[in-house]
Amino acid sequence: MLDDRTTAATWPAAYPQGYAVVDVETTGLARDDRIVSAAVYRLDAQGNVEDHWYTLVNPERDPGPVWIHGLTSDVLEGAPLFPEIAAEFAARLDGRVLVAHNAMFDWQMIAREYARAERTAPVRQRLCTIALAKELSLPLPNHKLATLAAHFGVVQQRAHNALDDARVLAEAFRPSLHAAAERNVRLPLLECRPLTEWAGAPAQPRIGHQGSYAAPSSSAYRMNSWRPSRKRPACPYPNPGRYETDRPLKQGMRVAFSGDTSVDRELLEDRTVEAGLHVATSVSRLTSLLVTNDPDAPTSKTLKAKSFGTPVVDEAAYTQLLRDVAPADG
Fold first, then answer.
1. Which of 85, 104, 140, 292 is the most exposed place for a label (fewest CB within 10 A)?
2. Where are the alpha helices (DSSP H) in the chain?
């Protein structure tokens, strides 16, 4: 049933005919991490729920941050492997726009799983609800799923449970979609290119997880990367100064990165920007924090950080800090 504000006659003809709202929980954020659970809510053209589906997935390795997703090795031991649920998953994605909160991450995790299974996910376009919220200029203090849900009065029952997160997102997406239709806003749809060639890339075994998938070399990954580089918008918040140990990051802080990261650098930078932080391309006296996994490397950024006394944290600590960034002063 259509929202009272938007009738079938005024619904934008260019809008997609169906959506698959997706959430996946994973063993981590790196390229060789695996999906441990997945959920899909299928929606019609106007965002009404048609059905939903949920499955656990045996990652064939350590489950990762159990304190986040709650899925232990014992729980996942009897779960199906990804190739065993790939067909059902694909049937629920087929012909629809994939919708997710930070959709690039969910799409990359899904695409890699299909590449490992030597299959291709039937997804041609994705829509990120963070990008849609920005297009609609929703008055949100940050772009966390819980914040978007609260804006639309959606109650979150089990955060980081794939089924509940997908439900929450589906319920928040429908009013967002209707607001966009009412204003005839162009949806921020992006192309999803399959990573089928990635499955055959040279591998570097991951130590310590018997039977785990071996990640391809970073050069092979970059070779198949399709995401265009682009200039980031200026951070809207003033720089509050340097990061202080045992205190949260604050919006407006200038964060620089140096060296290799396990999470794709652009994804890590996207999360930084979405949290209200500024991505600094160099280190200066104004830099709030340097993120590096090799603080002793003789790079220009690490050397400058030492000379300026700039705080330094590794990637794992930084991703934890990103979960709870304090709002800007004012």
1. 140
2. 66-69, 73-76, 82-93, 103-116, 129-135, 145-151, 162-182, 218-224, 265-274, 300-308, 315-321
